Amino acid sequence: MLKFIARLMRFSGKDAWKLKLAAVISFIEGILQNVPIFAALLVIIRITDRTLVSGDALYVFAVLLASIVLRWILRRIFVGLESDTAVYVASRERVRIGDLFKRFPMSYFTDGNIGNVTSVITGDLSFAEDYGMTKLDEVISGLISLVIGCLVLLWADWRLALAALVTCTAAMLVFRIMERLAKEKSKIRQEQAAKLTGAALEYAEGISVIKALRMTGSSAKRMDSTIDETCRQAIGFERSLLWPVVNYVNCYSIAIAAVIFIAFTLCFGGELTLPTAFMTVLFVFQVFRPAMALATSATMMRVMEAGLDRYEKLKEVPIIDADGKDADLHSFDIEFNSVTFSYDEKETLKNITFTAKERSMTALVGASGSGKTTIANLIARFWDAQKGSIRIGGQDIRGMTCDSLLRCVSMVFQRVYLFNDTIGNNIKFGRPDATDEEIIDAAKKARCHDFITALPNGYDTRVGDGGSTLSGGEKQRVSIARAILKNAPIVLLDEATAGVDPDNEKFIQEAIDELVRDKTLIIIAHRLSTIKNADLILVLQNGEIVERGVHSELIKLNGQYTNLWNRRSNAKSWRITR
Questions:
Q1: Does position 46 have pLDDT exceeding 70, yes or no?
Q2: At what angle do helices 216-268 and 158-205 cross, to 10 degrees?
Q3: Per residue in 519-533, pLDDT tens?
Q4: What is the residue extent of each domain of the chain?
Q5: CATH number of 2-315: 3.40.50.300, 1.20.1560.10, 1.20.120.530, 3.60.15.10?
Q6: 398 with 324: CB under 8 angstroms?
Q7: Average pLDDT for residues 139-153, to the nearest whole number?
Q8: Contact status, residue 290 vs residue 26, Cβ threshold 8 Å
C-alpha cells in the first residue's frame, strides 16, 4: 500500500507537494478527531473526583468548538488540494497521451488497440481522478488512527496495547492476502473492461453496415457475449475478495471486543481507573473505524493500480519520431530512394524511387491495392519504410519530428472526418490562431461559404460526430477549406471528386484548384482526365512503378497506363440494356 502511495506521488509529478501537504493536514486532522474523547475523559475524571464545576462545561465546549472549527478549516484546505491535484494531474496526463498519439505509428491503431486506448483515457484516468486522492486520504487516516490508537492504549495499559497490536498484526496479514488477490484480479478486470469498450465502439461504428446487411442478431450476440463475460469477471472479482474482506474486518471487531473486555477486567480488578476504562471504550470504536475502511480502499487502489499499469504501458509504445529534431524546411522536393514497405508480412511497396519536384503535380495511378495510398501515408509519416529513405527538401523525414513534418503537409482524402464542433472551428483546426476573416476567406476559396451562411447558425453551426449533419460534398469542401487555411507547401490529395455528384464535383474541383496553386502536389488519381497535365505520372502495379512520364509519353507506350485510360474512356459511355 505504501508503495502505491509512493507511485501516486510520482504520478503526480510537480504537483506531488500538494499531496504531501495534504498528508500533513490529514495527519493533524486525524489527531484532532480524538479531541472529543479526551474531553469526555476530562469530564468523567472530574465527575468521579467530584470536582466538576460549571466552568468546566464552558471550557469543554470551547475546546470542542475550537477543534471542530480547526478541523473544518483543515478539511477545506485538504479537499481543495486533493481535488485540484486530481483534476489537474488527470488533465495533464490526458493532454500528454494525446500528444503521444500523434507520434504513434498508425499500425498501433490498426492492431485492435482502440478499445484499450479509449478505456485507459475514459476509464483508468477517470477512476484515478475520481477516487485516487480520496483513497489516499482514507489510507493516511487509517494508518494514523492505528498508530495513535496503539500509543494511547499503551499509555492506558500495556495489556490493552498488546491486545490491539496482536489483532492488528493478524489484520495486516489478512490485508496482505487481500491486496495480492486484488492486484491479480484487478488486472483481469481492467483488461475485460477494455474488451467491452472495444466491442461497444465496434458495434456503434458499424451499426449502419450491421443494419444494412441484417446482421443485428449475430452482432448483438457478440456484444451480449462480451457483456456477459464482463459481468462474470466482475462477479468473480467481488467473490474472490469477499472472505478476505470479511476476515479483515472481523479482526478489528475481535480487537474492539478484546480491548473492551480487558479494560473492564482491569477496572474491576482495580488496575485501571474507571475514567480510563470509559475513555478506552469510547476510543477503541473511534480508532479502529478508519482502519476497517481500508478494506474497500485497498481493493479500489488495486483496481487503480491496474489502470495505471495499462496507462504506463501506453506511454511505453515506441513513438515514430523518438530521435527526430525540429526542422525548418526551405525547399519542398519529395524524393523516394529505393523505398520498400510492408504491412506485417505483406510487401506493399517494392524499391520505389522517384522525385516530385517543388511546385509540381505528381500523380499516382493504378489499380486498387497497388500502393498509391501507402506512398501518401509514408510522406506524412503515418508509417516508416523498412528500407530506403524519403527526403523532403533534402532532409530525411526520419530525422524530423512529426510536428515539423506535418507543418509542411496538408492532406485531403476521400474519407473526410469532421469533429463534433462548429464549422468555424473545424476549418481552423490546422491553424488555431486564424482570424474570422481568414476563415471566411478560406471558405470562399473552397466554395463552401454560401452553404455555411445559409445554415441557421452559420459558422457556429455544430456538425455532429464525424460531420454527420452535412452531406458528403459539403464535408469535402469544409476539409478543403481547412487545408487552404493551413496553407502548407505540400498537398497530398486522394482525388476528392471520385465519389460525389456532378453538382458538388464542380464546386470541389474549383476548391482544389485554389488549394494546390503553387504547391508540391501528390495526387492519387481515380479519374485520369484530371491528371492529363501532371508534371509526372507514376503508374503502380503490385507495389512497383511499372511506368512513369507525362500523359503524352505514357499513351505512346501503349502499356498499363494506356490500358487504364482506354478502360476509363469506355466506362464514360456505359448504359444499362435489357
A1: yes
A2: 170
A3: 888 888 777 777 888
A4: 2-315, 325-408+520-573, 410-487
A5: 1.20.1560.10
A6: yes
A7: 76
A8: no
pLDDT at 107 over 90: no
For residues 565 and 19, give the distance between their C-alpha atoms in angstroms, rounded to a whole number.
Answer: 69
- What one-letter code names the amino acid at 412? V
User: What residues contact 321, with CB distance under 8 A and at least 6 apart?
Assistant: 103, 381, 398, 400, 401, 402
**For all residues of the chain together, what is the average pLDDT?**
80
Q: Does domain 410-487 have CATH number 3.40.50.300?
A: yes
Q: Which residues contact 503 (CB under 8 A, 6 or more apart)?
A: 473
Fold match, 2-315 / 410-487: no
- Residue among 383, 432, 377, 381 nearest 403 (CA): 381
What is residue 389's predicted lDDT score, i.e. its pLDDT? 92
The backbone torsions φ and ψ at residue 392, rounded to the nearest 5 degrees and listed phi first, read: -125, 125
Answer yes or no: is pLDDT of 110 > 70: no
The DSSP element (H or E) to which 500 belongs, if any, is none
Residue 347: beta bridge partners? Answer: 342
Residue 332, number of CB atoms within 10 A of its CB: 19
Reference 124, options 315, 340, 348, 402; nearest CA is 315
Please say if the pLDDT value at position 506 is more than 90.
no
Instruction: Please report the beta strands in 418-510, taking only residues with DSSP state E, as ranges in sequence order.
Output: 490-494
Determine the distance from the C-alpha atom of residue 340 to the mean position of all C-alpha atoms in its chain, rounded to a whole number.
33
Q: Kindly report the CATH number that applies to the domain delimited by 325-408+520-573.
A: 3.40.50.300
Place of cell 449533419: 469
| Separate counts of helices (H) and strands (E) for the chain | 21, 10
CA dihedral 475, 413, 524, 404 (to 10 degrees): 130
- pLDDT, tens only, 361-383: 898 998 888 888 889 889 988 88
Cell of 352: 520505389
Question: Which residues face 492 on adjacent strands?
Answer: 411, 522
Helices (H), 316-432: 372-379, 402-406, 423-427
Predicted confidence (pLDDT) per residue in 309-355, tens digit: 778 887 777 788 777 788 888 889 999 999 999 877 778 899 999 99
Q: How confident is the model at residue 211 (pLDDT cuts 50, 70, 90)?
A: low
The answer to whether the CB of 360 falls within 8 A of the CB of 441 is no
Residues 6 or more apart whose CB falls under 8 angstroms from that of 499 comprise 414, 472
Condensed to tens digits (0 to 9), the pLDDT of residues 239-289 reads: 877 788 888 888 888 888 888 888 888 888 888 877 778 778 777 877 777
